[in-house]
Amino acid sequence: MLTMSKYVALKSLFYSLPPIVQRNIGWRLKAIQFPLNRLKHRQYSNVYDSLNSIDKRDWIFGRVKEITFYAQNNNNFYREFYKKKGFDARSLHSYEDLNKIPIVTKEILRNAGEKWNPRSSKGSHGNTGGTSGNPLGFSFDKEQMVKEHLFIDKVWGRLKCSHRNTRLMFRGLSHLGKKAWHYHPASDAFLINTYLPFGEMKADLLRLFAKEKIEFLHGYPSAIYQFAKFSLLAVNEDLRVAVRRNIRGVLYGSEYPAPLYRNTVFEAFNVPSISWYGHSEMVLLAAEQEKHYEYYPYQAYGWCEAVGMADVRTHLVGTNYENRLSPFIRYDTGDVIEPVSIVDGILESFRIQEGRLGEFIFDANNHPVSLTALIFGRHHNVFETADFIQISQDKPGKATLYVTSLNADYSLAADSFDFTNVNISFNVKFRDNPYKTNLGKIPLLIPPGLSSFD
To answer: How confident is the model over 159-185, as pLDDT tens digits?
Structure first.
């Protein structure tokens, strides 16, 4: 019997092996883990893809009805919430009836607390992160991770990337101190230290690219963009050449890859890229196909809807078919989208119209202003020398712009921005380094009250 102490000892032994040995063993171990769950979700995906649109509606209906019945009968929150809303899962008889199911939001689920997510729940625990507000804690079982890995493999496969290909990952999964990188077995990738300046890591990175055949860059678009900007400096041509020697593509995850970021990375490395939409809750997953910024949801992963809301905008709403520990049923993701294709009531593709609803500030009239549109939807001369623009706001009508330049060029002025017809007074501050979250993201919106950052 494998006791906890033996498991810890085996894990320590595995982590002590050279990276090349860990890689050759690790991906094979993942491939044979939970074979029944893996087979089930592969079959779900294959069956769904083989159906016509009418049969796809019936397939989705059966899965959503099943989890809704379960939640109403076994989850204290949904039992009370549905009763209060006058909804009964027994009224579901067709795909069209699914619109009767009340929509929930992150705030509703957070306020429900243990009624929705009992602390006694078995399985693993996660949260949505706190970069745009209070995090939402939830539980999930091993099946969710198996499904996640299976569908992410499908996404990467569009660039002919598999776990056999070596990746350099730009994510803050662990703090590395002064180390430039290390091999991260759980991610099966070389993890770059997103907290160190690239200038301090250049020699180590050159050795890494000389030693390892790194074929894909993977991670936060903002971090990969920062790396690309650094490599485009004339003094770093040797690093850019080293990267381009084996690089085959870029995998953008966890953030919206703004065109400025994406174009700069392409200029530096001249390889194709793919972006996908997903989130910690593991409710929805969608990926680009032929066109950048047009996302095709995997409906076999989770039910993906485009729903018109009271704010006269279309929100992305999702349902996880299997998570019984913390059910997400018609969950408003907080993203405003533009549906591109809907066939027989099923959302086939969409564009993210404004990004996360949390990424906005308020003008003097208390009207929301999208940061994606404000920063990347206008021509700002400041981007000729600046690398990052970030914003914080403590009260409507006033905001602070933080400008970061890797060239340390501070000959920028407030009139380098185009904020015509925006009823907000901006204060400009210059910084040597952008604000980063604990995980290494470089968000557009900086949470208010970070005096230590100022």
So the answer is: 999 878 999 998 765 566 788 898 877
